Amino acid sequence: MRNRDYFRDKKVTIVGLARSGISCARLLAKLGACVSVSDNQDTPALRVKAKELRAKNIRVELGRHSPGFIKGGDLVVVSPGVAPDALPLLWARKSGIPVISEIEVGWLLCPAKIIAVTGSNGKTTVTTLIGLILKEAGKKAVVCGNIGNPFCGEVEKLRPQDYVSLEVSSFQLENIRGFKPQVAVILNFSRNHLDRYRNMKEYLAAKACIFMKQGKGDALVINRDDAALRRTARRAKSRVVYFSAAKEANANEAAVMAVGSLLGIAQNKIRRVFQKFRGIEHRMEKAARIRGVEFINDSKSTTVDATAWALNNIASRAILIAGGREKGNDYAVLRDLVRRKVKAAVLIGEASARISRAFRGIIPLQRAASLKEAIRLAFLRASPGECVLFSPMCKSFDMFANYEERGRLFKAAVRRLAKNN
Q1: Of 49, 78, 97, which residue constitutes the final position of a domain?
Q2: C-alpha span between 44 and 384 (Å, rounded)
Q3: How many separate domains does the chain show?
Q4: Same domain for 249 and 112?
Q5: Which residues contact 281 (CB under 8 A, 6 or more apart)?
């Protein structure tokens, strides 16, 4: 690792006991920092994690945030799920204590070359494919960040000749200071996260942080077909490389090919990866076929654009299961597509009322109290040759820990349904 002594003896408070917070706490404690973790939730699962951290001499508080955890500190590391106006962050800024994100910690310590990927949609697929083309070219590559293992969970294993394919969200980019990937990728930009950002301009500014520290020796890979991104790219000091969807490659593949070209990977190797790629879990994943009805797990869909892509890429009419935590989406933009591709919709979660208003009058709508009930109601609506598409368009946090848990529970419920039918 680089900068191994940077955190030694520093008093660091980590806000948020999710995956990235836990990985960061373990790593910094190992490097000799005095680590505390604060989370305003208190659940049985968090208590298990807290016990493990306390065994490593890491202080943990649950169910509240105490000023004493921040006071006199050298640094606060914030997990991506923590709101910008959370009390510990306000206390830290008032006291002049720097607030950084977990990916900033990872970057400070990472000796490897970093390809960082962001965008409203497609991040996980592109990040995964970049890792695969690097491995196809015989290079050691780690895929991490907002996908799989947190960045801080991987940096100890990396060497200067290695690569990191890093998925980063706008939340993670909000609190970076020096983060500077050798290659930054912005796939697209669309309405999203307006529960967190005051407007689209503020959301775009967070995305743009991915390239703001880059220099002439770095590269920014950006979607030529997105006018907002083209305008934003004018601010880049790095080399700007454009990609565009075409007949031979969709937008995600075109982005991967652009990155591959920058890294000197032969096009035939990249296309071989595309041919072998079978997709990622929770993204248009076929879960089961029951009495001629296909069940598709698209739990990774947390935006309207992601569900639009899913609807455009199914061959049959769908019974749509959607809903979750509201984040400022405009569901009405899907009305024409829903009219053409959706037979009926079953809605769950906090956003069900808003989605219902957007689709009222064009398809039959039902609400369900649970995912299990939604699957049962959707199956009753479906005919052989049709599909049940679970594509939520929303965050999962009102009912589930994350989209992975949501997708796994969908598949488990579908398997139980299959046994009974």
Answers
A1: 97
A2: 43
A3: 3
A4: yes
A5: 404, 407
Which amino acid appears at position 222 of this protein?
I
Q: Are 76 and 88 in contact (CB under 8 A)?
A: yes
Q: Are residues 222 and 293 in the same domain?
A: no
Using CA of residue 201, residue 399, residue 44, residue 404, what is the dihedral sign?
negative
Please report, for the domain that includes residue 93, its CATH number: 3.40.50.720
Which tokens in the block code for residue 32? 């000799």
pTM to 2 decimal places? 0.83
Distance of alpha carbon 255 from alpha carbon 263, whole angstroms:
13
Q: What is the C-alpha to C-alpha distance for residues 315 and 311, in angstroms, rounded to an integer?
A: 9
For residues 108 and 254, state if they share a domain. Answer: yes
When pLDDT is averaged across residues 213-241 and rounded to a whole number, the result is: 95
Beta pairing partners, 100? 77
27-74 pLDDT, tens digit per residue, is 999 999 999 999 999 999 899 999 999 999 999 999 999 999 999 999
Q: Would you call 16 exposed, middle or buried from its count of C-beta atoms within 10 A (0-12, 13-18, 19+)?
A: buried
Whether residues 127 and 39 share a domain: the answer is no
Residues contacting residue 139 through CB under 8 Å, at least 6 positions apart: 161, 162, 163
